Amino acid sequence: MELNGFKSFIDKVSINFSEHGITTLIGPNGCGKxxxxxxxxxxxxxxxxxxxxxxxxxxxxxxxxxxRSAAGFCEVNLTFSNPKNISKFKYDDFPEIxxxxxxxxxxTSEYQINKTSxxxxxxxxxxxxxxxxxxxxxxxxxxxxxGMITTSKPSERRFLIEEAA
Amino acid sequence: MELNGFKSFIDKVSINFSEHGITTLIGPNGCGKxxxxxxxxxxxxxxxxxxxxxxxxxxxxxxxxxxRSAAGFCEVNLTFSNPKNISKFKYDDFPEIxxxxxxxxxxTSEYQINKTSxxxxxxxxxxxxxxxxxxxxxxxxxxxxxGMITTSKPSERRFLIEEAA
Amino acid sequence: xxxxxxxxFKAINEQFEEVFPLLFNGGAAxxxxxxxxxxxxxxxxxxxxxxGKTTKNINLLSGGEKALTAIALIVAIFLYKPSPFxxxxxxxxxxxxxxxxxxxxxxxxxxxxxxxxxxTHNPKTMEVADxxxxxxxxxxxxxxxxxxxxxxxxxxxxxxxxx
Amino acid sequence: xxxxxxxxFKAINEQFEEVFPLLFNGGAAxxxxxxxxxxxxxxxxxxxxxxGKTTKNINLLSGGEKALTAIALIVAIFLYKPSPFxxxxxxxxxxxxxxxxxxxxxxxxxxxxxxxxxxTHNPKTMEVADxxxxxxxxxxxxxxxxxxxxxxxxxxxxxxxxx
Lengths: 165, 165, 163, 163
Ligand SMILES: Nc1ncnc2c1ncn2[C@@H]1O[C@H](COP(=O)(O)OP(=O)(O)OP(=O)(O)O)[C@@H](O)[C@H]1O
Ligand SMILES: Nc1ncnc2c1ncn2[C@@H]1O[C@H](COP(=O)(O)OP(=O)(O)OP(=O)(O)O)[C@@H](O)[C@H]1O
Ligand SMILES: [Mg+2]
Ligand SMILES: [Mg+2]
Prior knowledge:
The complex is a heterotetramer, with two copies of chain A (165 residues) and two copies of chain C (163 residues).
Chain A: E1 2-4, E2 13-14, E3 23-26, H1 33-43, E4 73-80, H2 83-86, E5 97-104, E6 109-113, E7 116-118, H3 120-126, E8 140-141, H4 146-151, H5 154-164
Antiparallel strand pairs in A: 1-2, 1-4, 4-5, 5-6, 6-7
Chain C: H1 2-24, E1 28-33, E2 44-49, H2 63-80, E3 85-89, H3 97-109, E4 115-119, H4 123-127, E5 131-136, E6 144-148, H5 155-160
Parallel strand pairs in C: 3-4
Antiparallel strand pairs in C: 1-2, 5-6
Helix pairs in contact in C: 1-2
The structure holds adenosine-5'-triphosphate (ATP) (2 copies) and magnesium ion (2 copies).
């Protein structure tokens, strides 16, 4: 996964999540760990800025520090090295799937699958029924929300089962 | 503070919170630490069973285990050894203030201040403006709610300032 | 559709009934349908009972018990229909020493089937990691990621990375 | 009344502006009124900026930063109008090693004015306790409290109490 200008990742950062074994992210408060999770959700098609802790979607673009000025756009590239796990059709013959999402400060967006332009909907369709879907997905447990599964309304828990069904 | 039949405290338990110094409660998950905090809030006049994690107020009465049968009532006794800190009137001449709250499974309640029967309202009045008040109080931060102060609505944050005003 | 949901529900419930006692070192739990007549829309409820206690309102459980119950449910769903990866952001924050140990053991046992990404502040959880990335902000406000080579270091050194 | 609220607001804000940089080892924060014309009903907003970062939407802060900001506000209110006691239930759960250290230092410095009761799983926080009570459930489902004599034991023994 590659982050460029996403939240606190103004300098391009590339992270390799090993396929075999547990990858653990550590670091002090506020250093960017949950931002990486946000970038992952965003690349998978998250449409609600609130779920990414922002007021509007452009909040995910690096907004500048005392030393650096704000970025004009942000981009996240997500590479899956085992397409058969992700999608049952269409991309089986590719060795990898590369999902790209880009957002400019004027709110225009670009989306690509394997460098070919597509719509946000195509990215979301790609991940439908994999458990990775935004609100109903069970694959990403964000910070603070683990207890909520137990205390949530029964109708919300149904969504988790439905996504797996 | 004394707990008798309150939540997991079926055997009467007495805790002395030292006036000078930090008292720390430790123990494994589910052993009863937050139940002690609930008992404190309850004795101070908490009226919402939801704030005590219950569906109805009788949920705070010991409900039984595989070995023990449910209790018929619960009682919490709260002793303040420095009344001038608590209340600016009425009880200044007492060396201590003892607040008692009792609840029976048939939902009848009894309240006492220094062994004299009173109403729940009298207990709540005693603690008005001390920061100990239920919903608006700033003295008791329950588990999981610290982040909420930062993300809460501006009108809710106002309550904290008002209580101190 | 009704049948898909029913099939998933039953299978996940079976897993949940098995996983819960492993994480809690005892006790029992199950999923129930609020309205069995209306499979199409019914909500799903959780009955959870830590060892030795009686099942009551799930809201009365402690912070750590609620977190561990949710983890049991997520694991149960993964056992039925594994997703390509699972990201857990500080789910171990409310857990005590023994629960973290059982949580780590459970995650470790699923590594062949699921790619896990964990975020944690807890040294015990770091011990089961195969790969660690340290996220830092040497320059304020600018994140950077460093790869931490586990085989090359001893445990006290790993812990001191935190500071 | 308007004046009471204004007076409290200004005083608490002054404390908040001082306490925040102590907990964050830098940075700045303040309270603002959403509608200065309407003191009677206006909401209160927080502007918080950890060291080196720019103030933006407070929701973008990390879990640990949000918790520490809230702690700064509570401490600020206590400095203005101390309540007889302060109960903090696992507020240190999302904090990293350095923030817990500063949090403990702050709590310790207020001990003469406020009676603190802390609930924690964190050994660092236990180190600043003057009195420790261990809550246990030897018999399942039945809570019991044991007093732990700190002066009589060494640190490793204290930590092993957790297990
Ligand atoms: N658009 C942005 N531009 C610059 N910085 C940002 C942006 N959005 C968020 N941040 C910063 O990122 C930081 C939050 O990072 P993150 O939530 O990843 O922390 P964390 O490592 O998860 O910490 P914790 O351990 O406390 O949960 C905040 O300080 C916030 O100000
Ligand atoms: N009325 C009741 N009768 C008996 N047991 C109860 C009652 N209400 C709650 N409990 C039990 O008390 C336990 C919760 O205790 P508590 O919330 O104090 O735990 P805790 O020590 O704070 O744990 P954690 O560290 O996980 O936050 C639960 O297991 C719950 O079943
Ligand atoms: Mg985080
Ligand atoms: Mg608790």
